[in-house]
Queue: 3 jobs
Job 1
Amino acid sequence: MAEKREYRMEELARLAGITVRTLRFYRERKLIPPPRREGRIAWYDDHHLARLRTITALLERGHTLNGIAELAEAFDHGRDVGDLLGVGGPTEEEPVHLTPEELADHYAGEATPENLAAAMELGYLGTDGEEIVHISRRLLDVSSALVHEGIPLAEVLRAAQQVRTHADALADLFTDLVLRHTSAQDLPRLRPLARSVVEAELSLALDRRMRKP
């Protein structure tokens, strides 16, 4: 395991490519966590360095300091990745590790604390040190595509909550059907059939909806 590195203020500022004055300003604005104190000496570590580099990247992408502060606050109080993934993690979906600036880019400036809180409440997002984890690459790609089509992220997340409710009901229906006639051991093997039915029925439902005047 790599030894944990610590830096004094001047070294940290140099490594982050900022001035000591800027570092103090960021600390006063609570954009970075407080340092470890040893007497009158403040010690910073690699997490502080990663956060400073993230701030620089977000500023270069046009984000404001107020927006960055809100983003930092949301992630500092977010759900841990262990709570997000649970024991064993998802069986089919691929989790995605992101930096804060990558997440902000995915959502075109709509990664507000309110939207992040909603995504965390849904179980879409968790934190892993300085990184964010999204539970599903497919859901990340779809939600990002909808936002870039002009649909507000808040509305995408509200729709996702409704989809979650219907998906839970469908999962219960399929599970009950299988358990009435087979056993729990058959559920993993028959799982793809449930997904195929849902995809086909949704496709047909969209056809019907688009034919409506």
Note: The radius of gyration is 22 Å.
Job 2
Amino acid sequence: MTSQTTIPVGIYWKPGVWDLARSAYLADLDTDAESPGSFVGWLAQALELHARRSPQQRSELAAAGEKHPALVSVTRKSFNKKHDLPASTIEAVEDALVADRQELGRMLARSAFAQEAVIAAAEEARRRLGRDLPPPPQKLSNRPPRRRPAR
């Protein structure tokens, strides 16, 4: 990701989804050797994977995740956060948004797409971990250490 052109993109985060994303990212550091070593890399990977799904697959995942507990917060307000994402990631997301609109009539904003992508990626991270995701840290370090393979 360092040699690619990046674009600053604002994502409107529901607090529970933000926490879920950070928890899934940390879990993937220990269970997925291919997982990026930075949160923004993990987010880009989740967005790209979701963009590669068919509109029907994205619609089914959205329906399955619409009652996810991360979507509800009574104590904290949603917020906007800027992420420097690869231009290729944004292009893939925009292509997927157009496909969803043309094929299924689903009108989503980038933030809603990101929310669906994170919920799906977090479920995969939970499956790989084999238990509930760890609680999110108060603050993510820039490059937390990953689990080292057994020697």
Note: The helical segments are 15-31, 39-52, 55-65, 87-104, 110-129.
Job 3
Amino acid sequence: MGHVGEPRSAHARDEELGMAVALAQDGDEAAFAVAYRLVQPGLVGYLRGLVGDEAEDVAGDAWLEIARDLGRFRGDGAGFRGWTATIARHRALDLLRRQKVRPRTSALEQDMLELPGTHSTSDQVLETISTEEALRLISDLPRDQAEAVLLRVVVGLDGPSAARVLGKRPGAVRTAAYRGLKKLAAQLGARGVTDDGPTTLGESR
């Protein structure tokens, strides 16, 4: 399967998000609300994979930090998604350290299946599973694969952005996401999923 880029609508959303963030940094509260609306669903979906029912509370804490430090952010819409995911992940890990439990990836909700992701492997996998199956199957993935899938498909980050959130090399995250999606596809018997490698996720090597 050849190289496939991100959906055009994803680029449009990130363009809208970038403009909203720029206006919000100038004090436009309505623009900040737009940025929140564009980012929050994916952010909560990701956090549900880490902290389950605590996701909304952790997201709230993250947004307080995002609002406080907004003036220091530099980047475009896609960069803002990565920046907010990094902040949210830190807050989630703080909570998990306090609870002394490992991140869990078994509490995803329907928003995972409704959010647009990348083409090819992820599309084939997510289009064939119900919420219940997603909860069960992703919880069975190794943690690195589960979190990579969440960041790539739920939050909508590209490989390098997901790698920055996780503090890993892009190649490692790309491979983890690909392997996770391939495992899901194999379990579901999804058709048309090839072994071309991580570029199936829509990235260059």
Note: The two ends are 14 Å apart (CA to CA).
